[in-house]
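subagent[fold] <- orchestrator: predict structure for attached chain, return tokens only, no commentary.
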Amino acid sequence: MTHGIGRRRVLTVAGTAAGTGGLATILASARAPAYAQGTTIHWLRWNDFVPASDQLLRREITQECQRALGIRLNVETINGNDIQARITSAIQSGNGPDIVNSLNNWPQLYAQSVADVNDIAEEIGAAQNGYYEIFKAVAHDGRRWLGVPWSIVGNTIAYRKSWFEEVGYAEFPQTWEQYLDAGKKLKAKGRPIGQTLGHTFGDAPTFTYPYLWSWGGREVEADGRTVVLNSPKTVESVRFMVGFWRDAHDEGGLAWDDTNNNRAFLSGSVCATLNGASIYIEAQRRPQAYQTERGTPMKDDIRHAPLPHGPDGQYHYHLPFTNILMGYSRNQDAGKRFLRWIHSREVFEKWFISQKGYSVGATTVWEGHPLWNEDPVMLPYRAAARTGRAPGFPGPSGAKAAEVVAKYIIVDMYAKAVQGMAPEQAVREAHEELVKIYGAA
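subagent[fold] -> orchestrator:
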């Protein structure tokens, strides 16, 4: 894994970093500093599920960056599943994007290969009422910030309200047993639950981890060393999943990525799916294109609900994003000034508004934004980030936990079982894989 790569190029960049006061002067004058002319920052990101946000970055934000900082911004977007391969290749070659908008707890994997932006992260957090706790788990190594936390996609279940009412659920099911009951009835009507158990960065881990925790299963103890996955509670969760998948789900979800469930829901093929708000936002954007079987706009029949309770409680894992400045970058000074600028309230707000609540800020100040007064259907996402836990819970979400995520060990444990492997064997094999990573049984 890349966290073990010893190669790191330490580059000295000429020029003096602009302090907070200097940046304010530049912004006020709307003139770029002379020493920044000609600098290009390459920012690698995922293809956003809210296309308007990518358009905003490429059109408006790039121009503002040039005017305010004298920095030419190159925004590159690719499939989120391809980002880790790009990071690994760039670290090995010592050449690639200056800044990567990384997902999950990936910053922990690349701790030895990122530049120090701790002062910027601390500054932004202090100015914006502090970061959500999950970022301390995924983007802080106990000594410093590994990147500047950017945003978090709140994951809830998008579901068809009228369809659940037809099978006796005026409110979304509160437990996994109730969700199985509703899903079984809806699948009999040709309206199964849509969920991926594939190797994809978002919807698979943000479903399987909270599901595991809700049954009392854990990867490791709180010490972050003792592997305890192979437990009766984990086996029970896998055994339940086998029947839940067979009786209530679209079984093709084994091969889905993070886009398939969106398309399936909007086509009317599934009744519910764990997702960010992108399905609802798209249905809002094109109400004539997405209609119910009654010929009414689907957006009016979409609601959002948290994951159900299990025997050990209710858990969530929302999708965090962190901007990491790569250690090999020859544009360290410009990269830091860009990060301070793009994360500022005045600039970030434009992107935040374009997201319409799909992503919330990494800092808690955004919960008070007027955007949340516009649409009650979006309210479940407003403070969703406060409820999230991170992989490795109850231990730290460090490099080893990040490696488990990257190798899809927990996702595969469930996928193998629903494909026919005995639950006990699926758990045992996953446990053994964790032991290889953590080095303890």
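orchestrator: received. Logging for downstream: The longest strand covers residues 39-46. The chain has a mean pLDDT of 91.
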